[in-house]
Design brief:
The complex is a heterodimer of chains A (167) and B (333). By secondary structure, chain A is α+β, with helices and mostly antiparallel strands. Chain A has two helices and six strands. Chain A is rod-shaped, with a radius of gyration of 24 Å. Chain B has six helices and 15 strands. Classes of the chains: A alpha+beta (167), B alpha/beta (333).
């Protein structure tokens, strides 16, 4: 009788272990889904955030990113520390075609570079969300402003990866 | 022969005692772990819903719109707890903590301190409610929560102010004719649920008055001094850029509690200061001229002092307009 009880306890313990393994893996999937969902929403909305949005006379231009502001934003380390809860944020110039020799943007290659990486806190970019955006940058060779120059429009992509708190 | 009288007795062997003891232990452990699992599942559900709420509120933020009004539908009565943390050296944007508590089933008591919080640094909530023991503002809803999202321009866009209240709260403007001329027009355009402009019932509504009248009013707006008084506390607001809805801060001051409003103003000023730095660098890059740079510097100094005090100065409008003119002319914004 006693040994039968011990056997029953052992059996149900093993059933319970299997059950909790399934529940916790579902929880981990659910957390991952929420992370991806957050990154997707952010990718869609990033062009409207005050730090990146291009505005003409303080009115926002639809889905247009100010490439110059994005470059100066990169120099503010306060934004790297979880402001958007992102591990990776980059803007890619698609059109006009960037200069292949200028992959990552620097102050001198801002008009022709391909990638402007603003936040890069991880090497694992699996799960990155991408959204198309218009990009705008100041071109001194255009227009007749105070010292010459006007804004040039192009096409690009924004890449976001949500922060993974488990890593 | 000797007849030995023997008492009738029941043999209680060791196996039976052991079986009863083990049975009791099993039942106790089963009940204990069931209660623990129920608690963990509730906490998991609350945290998941909190995170979902945060993700859900992202599309409510504005892009080109002057404002958005949205409803969040609930399946169960829910409490949302909002905690604002001021900016510090290590946390330059401050924090917005959000946690959810869904009403426990089977008539259990609603406990205040249970579910873990989700933290945001880029969201600014102005909930309508009261501070609890943990310095959180709690808003409780039966079926719906309402969210008004208004962009704040100083004169560039700083952030979206999210004003949140529940279906249990009602507001009434008792003398809206004394409000600024376009304020009523804008309020009617938004068409907020549970907000009326006549027929105030003090037992049912939070009554909002404009001007110097205080009797019968829960909230008093002084348009001349740019202050909003709630109970014994007074907060200040600024009318932002006239090209957009200038009353974003006024809506936030009316609908939220004063302590949360003051904390969020400090966070907003810190954020505005960082944005001013970015515009300063850009103004150098596109050669905007010394005048614009000085205006940016003056505005940044004002943001820095407001971040410390939480009191919005009255000259902020003048600084914003000066910068707006210069900035637009040189293509800064």
């Amino acid at each position: 009788m006693a040994f039968m009880l011990v056997a029953v306890i052992l059996f149900f313990s093993m059933v319970a272990i299997v059950y909790f393994m399934i529940v916790f893996s579902k929880l981990s999937d659910s957390a991952e889904d929420l992370r991806q969902e957050e990154a997707k929403e952010l990718a869609r909305q990033m062009a409207g955030t005050p730090e990146l949005m291009f505005s003409e006379g303080t009115f926002a231009q639809s889905s247009a990113i100010d490439f110059d502001k994005a470059f100066f934003l990169k120099q503010h380390i306060a934004y790297n520390r979880g402001f958007w809860n992102l591990d990776y944020l980059a803007i890619e110039r698609v059109y006009p075609a960037p200069n292949p020799a200028h992959q990552e943007c620097t102050p001198s290659t801002l008009a022709t570079c391909r990638y402007l990486t603003i936040i890069s806190n991880t090497n694992n970019l699996a799960g990155t969300q991408t959204a198309p955006v218009a990009i705008v940058w100041w071109d001194n060779t255009l227009g007749i402003g105070i010292t010459g120059g006007d804004y040039r429009f192009g096409l690009g992509r924004i890449h976001t990866l949500a922060h993974d708190p488990t890593k | 022969m000797i007849k030995i009288l023997s008492k009738r007795g029941y043999e209680f062997s060791f196996a039976w005692i052991f079986a009863i003891f083990v049975g009791a232990v099993i039942i106790f452990l089963a009940i204990y772990f069931t209660i623990q699992i129920i608690g963990t599942q509730q906490a998991t559900r609350d945290v998941t819903q909190s995170k979902s709420l945060g993700v859900l509120l992202t599309p409510i933020e504005t892009e080109l719109e002057e404002g958005k009004f949205a409803k969040i539908y609930l399946t169960d009565p829910t409490r949302i707890y909002f905690e604002c943390k001021e900016p510090t050296q290590s946390n330059p944007f401050g924090s917005q903590n959000l946690r959810l508590s869904i009403k426990p089933p089977l008539g259990q008591r609603w406990e205040d301190a249970q579910s873990p919080a989700v933290t945001f640094h880029n969201k600014y909530f102005f909930p309508s409610g009261e501070l609890n023991y943990f310095d959180e503002t709690a808003a409780e809803g039966e079926k719906e929560f309402y969210v008004l999202s208004k962009p704040l321009y100083l004169p560039f866009k700083v952030a979206d102010l999210m004003i949140i209240y529940s279906d249990k709260q009602k507001f009434c403007f008792s003398n809206i004719n004394q409000a600024p001329s376009d304020f009523r027009r804008r309020m009617e355009q938004i068409n907020m649920t549970n907000v009326i402009f006549a027929g105030c019932n003090p037992d049912e509504h939070e009554v909002i008055c404009f001007g110097s009248r205080t009797s019968g009013c829960d909230i008093v707006v002084n348009e001349n001094q740019k202050t909003v008084m709630k109970g014994s506390k007074t907060v200040s607001y600024a009318e932002s850029s006239v090209e957009h809805d200038p009353y974003a801060m006024l809506y936030a001051a009316i609908f939220s509690d004063p302590d949360t409003y003051t904390c969020q103003v400090k966070r907003l000023m810190s954020h505005a200061s960082k944005l001013t730095d970015i515009y300063y660098s850009k103004s150098n890059y596109i050669n905007c001229g010394e005048a614009v740079r000085q205006e940016l510097q003056s505005l940044n100094n004002t943001f820095a002092s407001t971040q410390q005090s939480g009191i919005v100065p009255q000259n902020l409008n003048i600084l914003m307009r000066e910068l707006q003119t210069g900035g637009v002319n040189c293509g800064l914004f």
